[in-house]
Amino acid sequence: MRTRIKVCCIASTSEATIAIEYGADALGLVARMPSGPGPIADGAIAEVTAFVPPPVATFLLTAETTAEAIAAHIRVTHPTTVQVVSHIDPVESEKLAALEPHIRRVQVIHVEGPEALDLIPAYAPYVHAFLLDSGRPNAAVAELGGTGRAHDWAVSAAFVRATERPVFLAGGLSAANVADAIKQVRPYGLDLCSGVRTDGQLDPEKLAAFVLAVGHADAEFASACPTI
User: Fold this and answer.
1) Per DSSP, what are the bridge partners of residue 25?
2) Closest among 47, 40, 34 to 8, alpha carbons compared
3) What's the pLDDT score for residue 129?
4) What's phi and psi for 104, nearest 5 deg?
5) Does an H or E element contain 218, and which?
6) 159 neighbors 109 (Cβ within 8 angstroms)
């Protein structure tokens, strides 16, 4: 299986063009957050979502925590997918599925320990995928993504094995470590921001190196698996 690549913190249509040219399957658009890199205004998000052609997916990263507020955010930005970055009440997740049944819904799980697996049954009935990140939602200033830190991939690997939902892996990924991440976790997709940026700008050379490393890792995994 080919590992999908989601390039996050896209700031403009020009960055979207670069990411698409280098093979991104999805683009992440960061709205207002309590901390972290890459937030842009809702109007800029809507401009990018209108520009991006299918089949590339556009992910709205929202810090809203109620179904009504998330739905309103979706309706002003028009993404194909909403990425809920807070550990919202599962009741709100259920409501969101009813309010926005045609939008793909991805729940972020911040991996601070093995207890992350306990959240699978709470959200799985209402989301299409999970994304494992390295935030600290209960910090004095909440970290909800974009930390540039890797978390415990052993927990992430156990999470992937424990759910039937696709799982994206985020947190501190780069061309230097992505092969190990794929080998250990076997995620459906990878999500990265700082690992392909220089001075805050999307860096085509770093992105090309990352995409190449993912391709090599996928090929190595495929060659190691016996055909049936």
Assistant:
1) none
2) 40
3) 98
4) -65, 135
5) helix 204-224
6) yes
Is-contact 129 164, C-beta < 8 A?
A: no
- Structural domains of the chain, with CATH: 4-224 (3.20.20.70)
Give the separation between CA 104 and CA 96, rounded to whole angstroms.
11
Q: Is the pLDDT of residue 189 over 60?
A: yes
Side chain identity at 228, as an amino acid letter? Answer: I
Burial tier of 38 (Cβ tally within 10 Å: 0-12, 13-18, 19+)? buried
With a pLDDT cut of 70, the percent of the chain lying above it is: 93
CB within 8 Å of 17: residues ≥ 6 apart:
none
Round to whole Å and give the CA distance between 158 and 164.
Answer: 12
Tokens coding 19: 């990411």
Q: Which helix (H) or strand (E) holds 107?
A: strand 104-110
Residue 10 CA to residue 120 CA, distance in Å, equals 28
For residue 220, name the pLDDT band (cuts at 50, 70, 90): confident
Interatomic CA distance for residues 32 and 90, integer angstroms: 22
